[in-house]
Design goal:
It is a single chain. Helices cover 38% and strands 17% of the residues. It is an alpha+beta fold. The protein has a single domain, classed as 2-Layer Sandwich (Translation Initiation Factor IF3). Strands 1-2-4-3 form a 4-stranded mixed sheet, with helices on both faces. The radius of gyration is 13 Å and the shape is globular. The two termini are 20 Å apart.
Length: 105
């Protein structure tokens, strides 16, 4: 389970994500294992990514899909704005590729 972010941390990550382009896109097949694997790999490399969601019938369905992507990827949802989802997953501090993103306290 990913840790909760404070409002200050969430705002910091939103600012960092502003200039990012989506690196994972969900297509007509929906949330497949391949999409989840791609999201995990992108999070491992970048820590902060954008995911483009497909068109769905309503906001509630979009929120459910975003929650499923978040849960299956093991990340924390930073923001859902329209069809773009921002995810964050901190790197393990013991790994050689130490976290690049320093969160405010």
């Amino acid at each position: 389970m990913a840790p909760d972010l404070s409002p200050r941390q969430r705002q910091h990550l939103k600012g960092l994500a502003h200039s990012l382009q989506p690196v994972v896109q969900l297509g007509g097949a929906g949330l497949t294992d391949a999409v989840v694997a791609a999201a995990r790999e992108a999070l491992r490399r970048h820590e902060l990514i954008k995911v483009k969601l497909p068109k769905v019938d309503g906001a509630q369905e979009r929120e459910e899909l975003a929650a499923e992507v978040t849960a299956r990827s093991g990340a924390t949802m930073v923001q859902l704005l329209g069809r773009v989802l921002v995810l964050y997953l901190a790197r393990d501090k013991d790994l050689p590729d130490k976290p690049r993103i320093q969160l405010p306290k």
